Fold this sequence. Notes:
This protein has about 350 residues and is mainly beta. The chain has a single domain (about 5-340), classed as Peptidase/esterase 'gauge' domain (Methylamine Dehydrogenase, Chain H, 7 Propeller). It is about 0% helix and about 50% strand. The protein has one helix and 28 strands. It has a four-stranded antiparallel β-sheet with strand order 1-28-27-26, with no helix packed on it. Strand 10 (about 125-135) and strand 11 (about 140-145) form a beta hairpin. The chain is globular, with a radius of gyration of 19 Å.
Amino acid sequence: MHVSPTFVRCFAAVALAIAVPGRAETPPWTVRDLGSLGGNHTLPTGLNDAGQVVGFSTLADGRSHAFLYDAGEMTDLGTFGGSNSVGWAINSFGAVAGVASVRNDRTSKAFVYQDGRKVKLGTLGGPFSLAYGINDKGEVVGYSETNFGYKNHAFLFRDDGMEDIGTLGGSESFAYDINKKGAVIGISTFANDSGFHGFLYRNGHMRDLGEFNPTSINDRSVVVGGAPTPEGNRTFIFRAGKLHILHALAGIESYPTSINNCGEVVGETLVRPLLHAFVYTQGQLLDLNSVLPPSFASHVELTAASAINNLGQVTASGFDTELSEVRAFLLTPPAAGRCPSGHGNSNPFKKTCPCATTLH
């Protein structure tokens, strides 16, 4: 599962204040601090069913590098000779999609990293490109500057190269995620560049989703995202051709980031000016701070949840008051309850979903 870049703006807030279920009433989760690359700021962005995590972390000198966390170890994915890089997404086979700066920081290029090798994906004609999503076929989406006034266009990268998938009639578009069927979501300007609308692209056609910011799509082609309302930003689900508000979050300002194949959603909720990392699971909204064990709860506040996999594991970030650092965490729910009444399958590489959650 993947996360949209819109969540990054929220990481600086560290306090939580809305009422949440008591910790004693919540089954225990396992929580792991992923460490860092030597600096004081680590953010997770992507997660697969094997529990591998990608993101970026500052170094001791302040630069930020993409990382791959696997089996307790964090690997620095480096750059193309420049200062910074970010890993944005990871597929089931451990292939990472991201962006890295080139020598002298003249620009940055989209990349795929796998088995110790990082490969540039090229551009749509301009100097810059960035990869946000990757599926198990190795298809990659993101955006790139073009030859036409250096405007950004969404791209789909496959074996035959990088394809410009166009816009909704305006001059710019940005692709955020792709599922196993090759369906792509993102945003685009429309006629006269008067604003951005969400889009769903598949089979060569880009559908206008209206004033909706899609952030993640699962393999059942259910899309989660946010949309403005008079009361604030709300979480919506796009499925079967229609947009539905997620009722568990109907009265809460929220910024969803990721949806898994079970329909579980993570993101941030806002009670101005405070942020809360949440997971929507089993039809209920859960503040992730309520599942922290005492060893973390005394000094960690989770402010942003960035990704959820099909086993219900969640990546989140929060402020550690003991370290005075922003840290990345992997939260694993208890095994009991993931497959009530015998539904689902615990094997993440099979097609069946390992939970019985339904959207409400």
